[in-house]
Amino acid sequence: MKQEEQNILEMKDIDKTFPGVHALDHCSFSLRKGEIHALIGENGAGKSTLVKIMTGIYSEYEGSYQFNYEQVHFRSVKEAQHAGISIVHQELNMMNDLTVAQNIFIGRESKGFFCSDKKINEETEKLIREFDINVSPTELLKNLSVGKAQMVEIARAMSFDATRVLILDEPTAALSETESEDLFRKMQDLKKRGVSIIFISHRLGEIMRVADRVTVMRDGAYIDTLNINECKVDDIICLMVGREIIEEPKQISHVPQNAEVVLDVRNLCSSKVRDVSFQLRRGEILGFAGLVGAGRTETMRLIYGADPVRSGEVFVNGKSCTIRHSKDAIENGICYLSEDRKRYGLVLGLSVTDNTVMASYKKLSKTGFVDRRGCDEKTNFFIKRLGIKTPSGKQIVKNLSGGNQQKVVIAKWLLKDMDILIFDEPTRGIDVGARAEIYHLMDELVAQGKSIIMISSDLTEVLRMSDRIVVMCEGRKTGELSIEEASQGSIMRLATKHETRGALK
Amino acid sequence: MNRKSLKINSIMTGTGLQKLIAIGALVVLYIFFSIFGNHFLTQDTFVSILDSSYYIGFLAIGTTFVIITGGIDLSSGTVMVGSALIGGVAYNVWGCSIVVSLLIVLLSAILFGLFNGILVGKLGLPPFIATLGTQFISLGYCSVIAKVQTQTYPRLTSEDGWFKQIVYKNNGFPMGMIWLILFFLVAWILLNKTVLGRYTYAIGSNEEAVELSGIKSNHWKILVYVVNGFFCGLAGIIYAATFSSITPQTGNGQEMYSIAACVIGGTSLSGGVGSLSGTILGVFVISVLKTGLLSMGLPVQWQQVLIGVVVLLAVLVDVIRMKKTRAA
To answer: Within an 8 Å CB–CB cutoff, is residue B224 touching chain A?
Structure first.
């Protein structure tokens, strides 16, 4: 009975259907006062739907919802906020052209029609000090780093006096390791103040570190709630996918020492990249580790011809290449799979087939007319080979899950017959099950003699996949490790090897 | 980095740069026409520069609000002329007093603004389409009411001619300027010191975030279009007082000058960014250009070509600036 009393939020038998989809199937969830409660499940498991009901975004559902020991039914975000539930959304939901203070107090700037910035700037100053965010209240939000913007959003959520429950929807997805650390510390502070936190994340390592309990969801149903100190990562994964996947770091590299060098980058410089050199061998996965903003993506953009090179040389298969445009890179067999698939990798409104053949029309057309049958054949081949889960090639890419969208991007470049694939955060926003498939696919590609550069901020991923690891910090390469000598510690040491101004150590 | 250099930096990346360029353009154009134009530096020319800045000014103030929300208004010109037509009908046919007729101009424009607002905010039409529809409807409907007759407002010498003094006092004082400044201030307060203004910027910046903050963004959008309608109405009154006889055809294309003024003044068509002071600068760039080209004896069509060029240059500055900000 005492257990029941502690629950500040209690949902029972929640049922929600959208046309054609049973999003939540008699789902239950309970949250204790002052705990960090992780909510986990593959994409489409129903986490977002559940959270949206909690916060009043969806107001039509069946079931019982108790908050603060009272039966509630929120009909709007505002109602939920006033009752004490605030949420920080996965995609940062801020207004970039407004100042920090204007963002924090949006909707609460004044009781009347007129408003002034003076008062909210003062209030914001207090919040900033309380949350230890190093920004000015009058700074425009678009000038902030992702990490700071996130902190501002959390400060906003906590600035409601009533807030007793804070929901963080994948808060670390876009954060660097140090920024994540800051966030976790903040979460512990809030917990001490008696705030309950619902923490949605795909990163199991984080959950094991910060959460007290974890609730697993699958296919719109509640599966189980575990105490973190009584369970192992594998237990959670089992519950999530209903099958076992084990992610062990790679022990040794199978790439021979004398494998031929397919890409040789020498002394590459630009406004953000300083003197970066490295080699990529055939059949190798070269990991690029570092904190967000270390210059990894920027380096790849130079190699791919997306940004202008200031100085330096690139050799592909031993031949010197001048790459001024992505077209040059593609002609040399180099392709780049952006971390932001939806913006740079796919045309979301087109079908799987259209996306797959997008870059290969030269190959698949005759005298200006597209060879439809050829396109379908090739696409079907890749759907089968990569295991893309889609009813057919005609399916619109927008309707696929993140993992399958990533596979379509891969198919596009395989069809174009690229030899060097640069993956930028290949599994961002992809759930655990699909992630394992992408890993498997990457392993297969290198086994066939392709070469891969993989940028990743997830150290487990770097250690699981790479044969060799290049670590960057502040636009410089700070070290290179073979997989045998690499560990989380050694990578992080190199990733934080900031320049000490002036004197050498 | 100290505060001062931060500030300079924000001027160079903000709308400040575009404003500086607009001021520069204004000065350069003025000098250019003084040298190459005939009788450019005369009072008559100055008067006609002011004449065309009043109504474009009011239109552009309204349009600035709409563009900052991420919308566009293609109907402002026809709403202005259409409302002025209806006011003329009220005065000439229905026998209303001049004051009531002018209020009818204002009311009619506000109603068209509300109509736009409902189309965009309530029914969710894209602003481009909604206001394109209103463009046709407003001009067509008002012409029907006017029986496609030119509507004439009282001349200076006739009984109700005093109303022309809202543009020029009998002693030649440009009264219109006072009204423009006054309503510029009203609009400035509305945009910078009220919740409406705050939400105008917020909606243009990220409408979804506004919704998720518990704000009914659609209601505010409707209000923004109503405000826009109000300024179109003021433009209609000034237009009637300036030109006296209103022909239905003159409404076409005025909205483009208004949009161009906003863009020249640094208001971003993607929303979230813009200022009224920039817009007013843009208005003067356009009216100097219009009048100046006439003084050079070039055919009217050249005005259109050159205003097009200026708009493209203004947008180009915006694009280059955006690229620079991203690269920095």
So the answer is: no
